[in-house]
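Researcher: We plan to redesign the surface later, but first we want a full-length starting point. Tokens attached.
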């Protein structure tokens, strides 16, 4: 095991899935070349379905991957860290039918990284189109060292502006949606208060093994990994450094930055509409019901939702299989997890006015800020007002991230 310059023991493996990333991957590898941590390696899984080689519409992507693999192999000779390439793109090595996707490629890289051996492994999930602050890896190692019982970090992120007003507006609206969602979850005390971004998370090797590895899902693999981890231990959120995912269109996955930008620029903003904070107050009320639910059935704000999703009184069933209030409360959180919270919040917020929801969030977390920047809460915010909102919310969010970790 090596040690970084500040004496924190580290064994960091950065894991990157790559598909059609000839333009971006060299920048990302170069970003890691600037890291102040001197004890890490990078694993890149360049991947595609095998069937694409016989698909005329995919041949350009296959050629891009072939070039990416060769370029990365050449770069490996000069990079100041070990670079391991997992070839899932060459003829005969592509994904078989019903395999593949971002989750499978991320899992392939992480599983390879685990097989490299060593103790106290940290797996850092990154993307081929993201950049990182120079202290990013060092800061991650220090946080895990300070909180040795924690198994995952959902790191801060920041999408850089592109100069294209339509893309930047969509990006800023998407970020505000995610940031207020996190702030409101932190306010409820939820164990699922995290933002799942594949380019901005890290897990311990021990934790990775315990949850069965990265879920090989075509979309949402980052969310499900963090949700599994949150069911085992507290999630860390605070970090002095951050990831910088690219703000660009993508059709490769159904959720995330790329689809959000695509939807936002085409006027379809409902999927990522900001949720009014009053709905999170219902979640907080539900949590407050757990103590009484341990003793008897009582009405809860989530009764209609749980009845529809589970088709039964889940609290009574949980009560029959626990030994005390603490285990009952944990079982409630395990059952009503991050996915169920998201589904419930979306259901409760259906039909809400998104501008009123944005204004309410600003007033709750940054009282008076909307008026200070000249936004009335009724008109469409100007692009510069969205920029100002993001900067202010990022500052507040960073403070809340560290406060969350300290509790």
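Model: Full-length starting sequence:
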């Amino acid at each position: 095991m090596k040690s970084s310059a500040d004496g924190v023991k580290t064994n960091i493996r950065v894991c990157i899935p790559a598909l059609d990333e000839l333009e971006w991957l060299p920048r990302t590898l170069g970003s890691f070349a600037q890291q102040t941590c001197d004890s890490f390696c990078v694993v890149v899984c360049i991947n595609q379905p095998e069937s694409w080689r016989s698909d005329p519409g995919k041949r350009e992507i296959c050629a891009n991957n072939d070039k990416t693999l060769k370029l990365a192999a050449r770069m490996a000779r000069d990079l100041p860290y070990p670079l391991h390439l997992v070839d899932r793109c060459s003829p005969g090595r592509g994904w078989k039918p019903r395999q593949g996707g971002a989750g499978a490629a991320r899992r392939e890289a992480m599983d390879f990284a685990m097989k490299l051996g060593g103790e106290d492994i940290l797996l850092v999930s990154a993307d081929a189109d993201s950049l990182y602050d120079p202290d990013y890896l060092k800061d991650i190692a220090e946080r895990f060292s300070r909180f040795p019982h924690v198994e995952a970090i959902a790191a801060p992120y920041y999408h850089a502006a592109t100069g294209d007003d339509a893309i930047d507006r969509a990006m800023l609206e998407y970020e505000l949606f995610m940031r207020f969602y996190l702030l409101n979850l932190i306010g409820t005390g939820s164990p699922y208060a995290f933002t799942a971004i594949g380019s901005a998370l890290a897990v311990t090797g021990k934790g990775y093994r315990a949850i069965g590895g990265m879920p090989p899902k075509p979309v949402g693999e980052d969310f499900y990994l963090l949700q599994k981890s949150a069911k085992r231990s507290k999630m860390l959120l605070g970090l002095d450094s951050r990831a910088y995912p690219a703000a660009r269109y993508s059709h490769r996955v159904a959720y995330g930055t790329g689809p959000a930008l695509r939807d936002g620029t085409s006027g379809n903003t409902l999927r990522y509409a900001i949720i009014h904070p009053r709905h999170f107050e219902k979640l907080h009320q539900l949590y407050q019901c757990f103590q009484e639910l341990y003793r008897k059935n009582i009405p809860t704000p989530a009764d209609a939702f749980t009845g529809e999703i589970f088709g039964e009184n889940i609290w009574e069933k949980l009560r029959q299989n626990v030994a005390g209030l603490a285990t009952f409360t944990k079982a409630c959180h395990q059952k009503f997890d991050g996915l169920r919270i998201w589904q419930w919040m979306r259901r409760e917020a259906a039909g809400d006015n998104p501008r009123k929801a944005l204004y309410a969030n600003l007033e709750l977390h940054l009282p008076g800020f909307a008026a200070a920047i000249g936004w009335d809460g009724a008109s469409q915010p100007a692009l510069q007002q969205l920029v100002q909102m993001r900067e202010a919310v990022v500052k507040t969010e960073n403070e809340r991230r560290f406060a969350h970790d300290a509790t």
